[in-house]
């Protein structure tokens, strides 16, 4: 165990109660692997059962004594983080758009997709903000624009949070299931606006281009970082895949990003966080079974911490900690150094913002149309209830009374539901889209002014 090395794992555990296959056995197996691992930070998604979280936490409590389970929405965000370092703060930011409450099967609205984070006190880096997220799922990278808009809003809000963390002098590690391919617009938003670096890309700089023929499933995992819909995964083997997934023998949806503080106060003494290795993890079957640990593979990254010009990074006399954190020992003292000129952050291109706005505008129009349609259903239900109420005085026989009774209950439920989704949720979604569209338009205009 060394503080100059940092090992991070992200894994979507597929832990939905009553729905996920072999959930109990898989969670137990994941806990066993984590108990024998040397990870410093474990970032988990789809841990929706608190008992599963307790089991995982207990298994790693000796090595990873600090942990946080995040609550959001009606069913919980499913996000959890385990840490070797003390947690000095934690927060969760539910995304503005998460699908619709009427889309029960998809379930994104009910679980409250969010960006969760913990603030840890690292003995060398100081404050490190660790983000965990699971972006909106439906729509894919080529689905309808109004569905892509929800994930784009997720990506924009996530990028702002990561950028803000770096701007106050914190190192940032961001991981999770982003439900987006590497070349998609949501990933461009996250990497460009937040200046985040993809750990897999950094550690695989010489990855060969995709061959004309299909890569083998093993090459797809080891060379291209495929974590979902792999033929090697028991839960996706034989699954009908979309064209992009067929081309790559799966999809790369799980990522680990990182970055330095936005404006380090002393470039010659501020530690550098460098990714030296990444690897797709949890690719084997659970021992003694024929099923995988999850419907996703995990992703692990190894970072090294060093000084720009070498030297002993663990020596407090040679190291500046950019944001205060509790020291490992009383002798660990912060060094005061004057601030240099801040380095300008990267920014989204106006063309990318325009593309985002097109998707959001399509979603805005669809939301208005859907709200009107749902309110129409509400009005029709009310009219039918009035007809039943008036006509009940002339019911031909008693046997029809129970039928009318249950029909009345159904229409009342339908009217209430569509009133809520058409008026309450519909107005809320339209207002959220309006705010984000105006924010992006202002941001694009400011970029164009700077360019001119």
UniProtKB/TrEMBL annotation:
The chain crosses the membrane at residues 375-397, 403-425. It is a multi-pass membrane protein. Pathway: Lipid metabolism; sphingolipid metabolism; Sphingolipid metabolism. It holds the Pfam family Exo_endo_phos. GO terms for biological process: sphingolipid metabolic process. Residues 9-296 form the Endonuclease/exonuclease/phosphatase domain. One of its GO terms (molecular function) is metal ion binding. SUPFAM superfamilies: DNase I-like. Its main location: membrane. GO terms for cellular component: membrane. Keywords: Hydrolase, Lipid metabolism, Magnesium, Membrane, Metal-binding, Sphingolipid metabolism, Transmembrane, Transmembrane helix. It is found in: Membrane. It comes from the Eukaryota. Belongs to the neutral sphingomyelinase family. This is Endonuclease/exonuclease/phosphatase domain-containing protein. It comes from Postia placenta MAD-698-R-SB12. The lineage of its organism: Eukaryota, Fungi, Dikarya, Basidiomycota, Agaricomycotina.
């Amino acid at each position: 165990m060394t503080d100059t090395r940092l090992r991070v794992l992200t894994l979507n555990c597929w832990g939905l109660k009553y729905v996920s296959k072999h959930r109990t056995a898989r969670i137990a197996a994941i806990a066993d692997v984590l108990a024998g691992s040397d990870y410093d930070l474990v970032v988990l998604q789809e841990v929706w059962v608190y008992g599963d979280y307790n089991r995982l936490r207990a298994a790693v409590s000796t090595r990873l004594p600090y942990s946080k389970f995040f609550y959001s929405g009606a069913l919980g965000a499913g996000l959890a983080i385990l840490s070797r370092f003390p947690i000095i703060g934690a927060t969760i930011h539910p995304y503005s758009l998460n699908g619709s409450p009427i889309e029960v099967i998809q379930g994104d609205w009910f679980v409250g997709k969010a960006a969760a984070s913990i603030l840890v006190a690292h003995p060398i880096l100081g404050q490190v903000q660790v983000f965990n997220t699971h972006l909106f799922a439906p729509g894919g990278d080529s689905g309808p624009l109004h569905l892509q808009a929800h994930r784009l809003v997720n990506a924009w809000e996530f990028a702002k949070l990561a950028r803000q963390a770096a701007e106050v002098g914190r190192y940032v590690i961001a991981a999770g299931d982003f439900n987006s391919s590497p070349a998609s617009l949501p990933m461009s938003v996250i990497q460009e606006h937040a200046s985040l670096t993809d750990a897999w890309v950094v550690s695989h700089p010489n990855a060969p281009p995709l061959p004309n023929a299909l890569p083998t499933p093993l090459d797809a995992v080891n060379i291209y970082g495929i974590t979902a819909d792999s033929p090697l995964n028991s839960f996706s083997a034989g699954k009908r895949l979309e064209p992009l997934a067929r081309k790559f023998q799966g999809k790369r949806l799980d990522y680990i990003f990182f970055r330095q503080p936005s404006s380090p106060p002393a470039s010659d003494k501020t530690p550098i966080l460098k990714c030296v290795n990444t690897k797709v993890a949890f690719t084997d079957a659970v021992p003694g079974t024929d099923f995988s640990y999850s419907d996703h593979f995990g992703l692990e990254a190894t970072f090294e911490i060093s000084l720009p010009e070498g030297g002993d990074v663990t020596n407090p006399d040679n190291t500046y900690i950019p944001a205060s954190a509790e020291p490992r020992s009383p002798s660990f003292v912060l060094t005061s150094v004057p601030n240099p000129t801040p380095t300008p952050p990267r920014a989204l291109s106006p063309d990318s913002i325009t593309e985002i706005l097109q998707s959001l505008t399509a979603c805005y129009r669809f939301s208005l149309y859907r709200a009107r349609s749902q309110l129409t259903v509400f009005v029709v239900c009310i009219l039918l209830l009035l007809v039943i109420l008036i006509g009940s005085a002339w019911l031909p026989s008693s046997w029809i009374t129970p039928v009318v009774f249950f029909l009345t209950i159904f229409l009342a439920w339908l009217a209430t539901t569509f009133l809520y989704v058409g008026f309450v949720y519909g107005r809320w979604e339209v207002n959220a889209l309006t705010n984000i569209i105006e924010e992006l338009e202002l941001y694009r205009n400011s970029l164009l002014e700077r360019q001119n």
